[in-house]
Every structure is written in structure tokens, then in C-alpha cells.
Design goal:
It comes from Grus japonensis (Japanese crane). GO terms for molecular function: metal ion binding. The longest helix has 16 residues. The strands form two sheets. A two-stranded antiparallel sheet has the order 1-2. A two-stranded antiparallel ribbon has the order 3-4. The radius of gyration is 18 Å and the shape is globular. 61% of the residues lie in helices and 5% in strands.
Length: 208
């Protein structure tokens, strides 16, 4: 994926710059995640998932703070409380972390979401909502990859490395869900100002 590494760097620099200007706690958390690149928000999601022992998909305040600390987010207790209150809409003392991650994701226009979904559907050959190595055969040509050409990697290893780009940093399972794909591109999208440019980039990258 040419260009994404550059966008990633630009986005991280931009996020760090904006951090010093904003006081909104949710925006500060978003920018801290984006300062780690496109996978930043996804990585935080993984930390929360690992902590969710009982699979309730919710976190109480203590778990929430522990998750932020484990992920080395620079947020003091007051700020964390404020963020928690914003997301604990019903005052139950727990927050739904999927909803939390979706809100944390940088906002995208419908036009951007639609082109991301077009790319996802093209890659998801089996149409089951998850991209796997099997899906990539025939859609993505591994033979042009330098590591395949010099004999370091097999075709499957190239596919796996490709999927790992979109997969979450701490739990690479070789499967990419719609949510992970969308999270990845929400990060990339944050570094691209206009819809037109974003759509052109996606069309070129995925030959849509």
C-alpha cells in the first residue's frame, strides 16, 4: 500500500501538534491514539478486549483506567473520569467499549465510508464479513513483493504480512473484520483533508 506509511507519519505529527491546543478530553484521547499512527485506536480496543474477562463488552471505571495505563495513555484521573462520564450515558457505572471506540474514531463522511466498504467487499471474496488469506488469493498479487521475489517469504507469508497491516497490533490473528478495516482507514482518513483525494487514493490502491 504505497503512501500509507507517509500518511501515517503525517497524521502522527499532526496529532501531536493538535494535542497541545485542545482541552476536550475525548479529543485529547483520540489525538494520543492517532499520534501512534492508524492502528492507534485499534490497539486501545485490543487492550480493552483482553481485559474484558467475562466477555460483557463493557468496562467499569477501574478497568477503563487500567486499560488506559496499560496502553500508556497520558491521562490523569480527573480527565479519565470526565471521559468515562461522557460515555456512561445511562449512569450504570459501565461503558460499552465498542461504542466508545466508534466514537473515538475520527469522524468520516459517508462518501469515505462507502469507498472503504467497496474495498472491503472486493477483498472479502467469500462475502462472510472477514478477510482471510484465502480471500486474498486472486485479488492481491504476492509475486511482486520483494521478499517473495528474493525467496525469503512464501506467498502465504506475503498475504499474512499484508493482513497484519490492518489487524490489531497486539492480537494479529490473520483475520480482518469490517470494524478493523474501517478503524485502520479512519486513521488514514484523518491525515487526508479532502474526500476527493481520499477516494482517488482508495480507487488507485484497490483498483475500484
Amino acid at each position: 500500500m504505497p503512501g500509507t506509511a507517509r500518511h501515517d507519519r503525517e497524521m502522527a505529527i499532526q496529532a501531536k501538534r493538535n494535542l497541545s491546543k485542545t482541552t476536550d478530553p475525548v479529543e485529547r484521547l483520540r489525538l494520543q491514539c492517532l499520534a501512534r499512527g492508524s492502528a492507534g485506536i485499534k490497539g486501545l480496543g485490543r487492550v480493552f478486549r483482553i481485559m474484558d474477562d467475562d466477555n460483557s463488552r463493557t468496562l467499569d471505571f477501574k478497568e477503563f483506567v487500567k486499560g488506559l495505563n496499560d496502553y500508556a495513555m497520558m491521562i490523569d484521573k480527573e480527565e479519565a473520569q470526565e471521559i468515562f462520564r461522557i460515555f456512561d450515558k445511562d449512569g450504570s457505572g459501565t461503558i460499552d467499549f465498542e461504542e466508545f471506540l466508534v466514537t473515538l474514531r475520527p469522524p468520516m463522511s459517508n462518501a469515505r465510508k462507502e469507498i472503504i466498504m467497496q474495498a472491503f467487499r472486493k477483498l472479502d471474496k467469500t462475502g462472510d464479513g472477514v478477510i482471510t488469506i484465502e480471500d486474498l488469493r486472486g485479488v492481491y498479487n504476492a509475486k511482486h513483493h520483494p521478499k517473495y521475489q528474493n525467496g525469503d517469504w512464501t506467498e502465504d507469508q506475503v498475504f499474512r504480512a499484508f493482513l497484519d497491516n490492518f489487524d490489531s497490533p497486539y492480537d494479529k490473528d490473520g483475520k480482518v473484520t469490517t470494524e478493523e478495516f474501517m478503524n485502520y482507514y479512519a486513521g488514514v482518513s484523518a491525515s487526508i483533508d479532502t474526500d476527493v483525494y481520499f477516494i482517488i487514493m482508495m480507487k488507485n490502491a484497490w483498483k475500484l
